[in-house]
Structures are given as C-alpha cells and as structure tokens.
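Retro notes - structure team

What went well: the batch runner handled both jobs without manual restarts.
What didn't: labels got mixed up in the shared folder, which is why I'm recording both outputs here explicitly, each with its sequence directly above its tokens.

Job 1
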Amino acid sequence: MATTTNLLQLPCEIILNVFNYLPLHDLQTCRCTNKALHILIRDSVVLQYKMALETAQAEDNPCSLAPYSEKLEDLRASEEAWSMVKPKFAVQIPVQHHPSGIYDLTGGAYLLGNIDRKTLHYLKLPRTLRDDRSWRSVTVDRTIIDMGLCVFEHDLIVIITTHRREQTEPAMFDIELTLREFSSDQRHPQAKEERILVMTSPYEKPAVGIEIVGDHLVLILTFYHHPHQPNDRVFIYEWRTSVLKANTSSSSQTHMQTPSRSFASHPSQPSRALRPSSLSHYPVSSRAAR
C-alpha cells in the first residue's frame, strides 16, 4: 500500500532547499500556512535574503564573498536609507583631470574620460569612510570614442577607439575594440586577441552603442551627425574568440536590446510620438559571419 509523506516530516534542510526555488509570493503563502513553516522561513537567513532581494528588485552580487547574514544586513540598511532619503555618509572626491564626455557607472566603479581621449580614469565607489578613494587609469595609444563594461560577469572593459591610417587620402580611420581585464588593466586572459579591427571608415568618430552579454558583444556604430548620414552598422562578436557572428547595416538611429542569444534593434525615425518604426530580430548564429 502506497504511503504519503507530509511536508513537515522532511528534514529542514530539504524543505529549505525546495523553498529556495519558490518566488516571493509563494514563500509568503507558505509562511501563512502554519506556524512551523513560518518559523522555518523566518529563521532562514538565505530565504530572508532571497525575499529581501525580490522585494527590493535587486540582484545578488556574485563576486561578493560576504556571508548571507552580512548581505542581508547591508540590503536592509540600504533599503531603509533609500526610503528615508538618508545616505549612510557623503564624500566629495576631487576630479584632478580635465574630463571628457565619456563616463559610466557600473559594478561599483565610476569611469570618467580624459579630454585628451587617450585615458579613462576610474575609482571604486567607497562603501565606508575608510575605503580608498584614489583615481586609477586605463591608457591606450589611440583616440577613445567610448567604452563598454561587463565587470560582474567577466571583469571586462572594452574600449572603442579610432585611429587614422597613415598615408591615406582621403583620410580613413580604423575603428577598433581593445579588450582589457578591468581589475588589472592588462590584456584579458580569456580574449584570444587584445585588439579587434571592426571596420575602416571615412568617418572618424561614430556614435557608439555597445552591450556585452555572456559570450557575445553587440556593437552599433551610428553616423547620424555626418552630412551624408550613412546607415548604422551592427556587429555581433564572440568576444573571447574574436569571431564575427553578424555584420549588417540598418537605417539611422538604431537602438538595441540584447538577451543572451539574440539581438533586437529598433530603427527609429524622428517623430512626435518617438515610437520606433519597426523592430528587427537577429538570432545569434553559432557560426562565424562571412
């Protein structure tokens, strides 16, 4: 005769492991089921942290080695500070270089370009008043147009540069990608090539859109500020191997959305409604582009 096992007869470790897969709404429902489950969920730091993350619509930092109890305490303190608009501390950090219009904030680091466009300065944002607040720099031997970052996932910074080819008339410019390890400012150990030639163009400084998701890097070069307004160029690379997966052109003002294995662009034209005129979807091939 078949027998059934009551959920509460299972070891607590198994119940907690099962509950770890439940969304917030289901966990809250389980808490209301009976006193034993309520106590089990209440006393589990892992589940409390999971619930706090979902409530705050935040993501866990996979690079952090802090215990869950410390993460939970920090998250609750952060949420309380946001709700009261009351930061834990405020500091002023002098900018000792002449900044350019290139900047980004990601992975707990703030990057700010130099007006000479050969150097990117960055600092790790302090979490306490005792943390180091000194600027560091990344320097290349070409003119920087923009950069893309994937710090949490790959410790990767990709610098987009332009460089005039010698003895070419009319002038032609190499648009290139330089792949560096963000933490060390050295060639990225997983990248087959440190520098990738994207294209040679008569236009020196295109506007850039770049996203890095998993193994793929999507690059959009837009030339809307040039008189002839050539089509945007879209490139999809496998950044580790430098393999070009896709190379296409699109009408002016392309924007992108990049899930892990596909790419969607919105070629938009100026309008009062600011609505995209069409949507193009590009599944990423497993083979190189020809």
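Job 2
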Amino acid sequence: MDELNLHPCMTPMVCLLKHMETNGIIPINDHISDMSPWMICMYKKFSNPLISFNIKLFLMRLIIDTHTIFKPYARYWLTPIIHICNQMFENSSEGLNTFIIDTIVILLSWHKQAIPIELDSIAIQRFIEYLFSNCSHRNVIVMKSNLDLIKKLIECWKERIHAPTLILYKLISEPDLKSKQNAISLSLIEILLANDILPYYAPPTPTGNLPSVTTNSILTTITKGFN
C-alpha cells in the first residue's frame, strides 16, 4: 500500500491541501459543521460503490497523509472509511497490514470529534471481527502492538461494540493450552472485560415466531465445546 505514496499525483495533491490549509483556504477549526464543496465532491467519490476500489485506496492514503485537514469532518468520513477497511480485509490476504494500522491510528486521533453511529453497527462489528481474527503475528512485538491498537480502539468505541463471540470461541478452542491462539484470545477477552463488555453477546430477542437466544444458551454451547 505504500506504493500509493509513490503515485505521481499524490505529492501534488498533498501539497495542494497543505497549501490551502496554511493559507487559510481550508478553515482550521475542530468545530466546523459543513464540508467545503471540494470535500463534498471528494466524499461522494469515496462513498460511491461504483468507483474503482483503487481510486478509493488512493483517496484513503491522501486522507491519512493530510488527516488534520479532515479531522473536523470526522463524523462524515468515519463510516465510509470503516467500510473501506472491511473491503481491504476481504480483498487482501495480508490481514492487519500497515495501511489498515495507519488508518486505525487516524480514526483513534479523531475519536473526540466522532465515534461510529448506531446505524453503522453491522460495519463496526465486522471491522472488530476482522481485527480480532487478524491480530496474531509471528513477531511477538508486532502482535503486542496489534493488541494494544485493538485495546485503544475498544476504549474509544466501546459504546458501539459487541464481543465477537464466535471469533473468541474459535481462537480459544485450540487443544494446546499453551498455544499462541489461546493466549491471544485471553488477551482479547481481558480487553473486553476491562471495558465492561462481556465476552459473549446475546442479541436482542427477535420478534415473530423465531426462538429467542439467551445468554444461558450461548454459554451452554460454549461450555459443551470444552467437554
């Protein structure tokens, strides 16, 4: 993904936005409510499902490189950025790569401006599931860094997060008690509990004729897996 910074258009675009910021063309104010026309145009391209994914990655890198400019408008950009991150996980075998890590760092720096809204719950939960599934790494230092990043993200977004129970169950099901997977799962559970999030999630009782899912039934299912 670092190749995006080598794109011949990237440096001129970054310089242009920095020039606009330095000369007051872009207001420097953390409490701005409306995007400028140029940013609205960029936002529409970034959010358009018909636009090439590569173009969106280019725009994402531009946002990362000039994140202070976009920070006042975080409430607009948060949702499409999360969707792009999910697409990156789906389209790449690299897992938690440096591009996604850079993006998460930017989202964390915006948390005082905005956190995901409840309407984005499905995308947020998918994002958390991808992070939990891909935080492992053969390098212990990198793995600890990934866990720390997840910890900070959950601390900032805990109002919008449910425990990815099935992911945790899969990680902790390794027969070897000393395995890395079990250790990671326990670390993730610790992070959840520290933020008052139970490591199992019981969805709301459905309406109609569907049977309800209770906490006890989930715990029973998980317990049976260890017997």
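One thing worth noting from job 2: The longest helix spans residues 74-91.
We'll revisit the folder naming next retro.
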